[in-house]
Amino acid sequence: MKKNLVFLIVPLLFLSLFLNSNFLLAKDLAGEGMDYVEVVNEKGVHMKFSRLIMGTDHLFQEDWYGTTLRKISEQDINEILDEAARLGINLFDTAPIYVGDIENKLGKWMESWNRRNPGKKVYALSKGGFPFDLFWSKNLPAGENSNCLQELLKEKCIMAEGYPALPNAPTGTYASRLFGSKEQIKERVSEEMGNTMRNLRGAPTVYLMHRDDGDFINFEPVKRSQTSVLTIMEALSSKDIHENYTFLGWSNWKPNRIVRSLNLAKKRPDLARPVFTSPYFSLFEMSDRSIHAGGVQVTHEEMMDRNFLEGMKINSYSPLGGISILDRPEICWDNARKDARRRYSQGDAYWQNVFHAIFTCANQERYNRVVDFTRDFNKKHKTSYSVDQMVNAYALAHPRADFLTVGPITVEQLRRTVASLKLSRMLSKDDLDYLYYGNE
User: Fold this and answer.
1) pLDDT average, residue stretch 330-356
2) Domains of the chain
């Protein structure tokens, strides 16, 4: 169950949609090309990263999709990663808690790739700030934890008075790693960073805090005040942590807290300036229920506004990583919903959230719309794009979409996803509005 709860994280984990099995032929991909975006930190360090960021959360998860296990070897993983780099992807999204020890496997591959291809270097985007999973630890973490969390745990008879043990903590129960003093946050994040550096055989180039400060019980947020953004930034800007990343950023942080961090960085030159933010963004919008605890999404209107979160590079992720909820032998919304309902009824903790987050009437309408739009678009332009490519292109075509984290788990899906870059350049503002709103 833990591997289903890990999200995604890309802060998956991020993450593209694959709605059917059609893909462009390899010969058509040669001319697609990769787009790159330049990023600058507070020290004036400039680097260019591919607009598509390769998510790794589900690459080594054998039961991620379907009723039978995928047979995956490390060689299979390396072939997919090799192909991603060949297609121009140079930034790879990972985390120390992702399934199958994938951060370690990525580190081994990166070391090999950079040695074999000295003129085509690849980089890692990793994450810290994951809340402590109390369902697995069965204890509150050492140090200071929020009183609000502890009182609710007692009220719900999950924790006994005077005892930190939590033998009956339900899934989705988390204690924040970004709660407390600057020194405590430093200590907790440094532990994560140490694991990441061992896995990657070096420091990550981009480092995101994959949740803001917050606690959860059974996936529901605990209502309390948050640790100040300044305290978190001071901890992450301390020499022991800052010397181990080049670019800092946030994942699943709300816009008001992001703006606060930018303002603080302008006033305090000693603080690392955050340059990345990674929210959920998709044609299939989340309902009031997030697909995972602490998930934060941005909207179509926000992503159409060129001034939204000015000063940050927005690296969004889409629902479910490498395989879409809609990728089935017979593709239709009802079939996908039925399968999601089955997993939900079986008590799968991941699908307990996803079912209610994604399977809404509004998303069903958007699904039907994108299917019809893709058919008509192909007829008009004499193309053969698939629906998953159109959904990826929708996310990429918005003015504020700097990057998109994708999660292909096969070479064919990877090639198809890279081809969506060309498609994104063909979509107009009216196309994007129609796909989201319809004929309003």
Assistant:
1) 81
2) 8-128+180-214+222-437 (3.20.20.100)
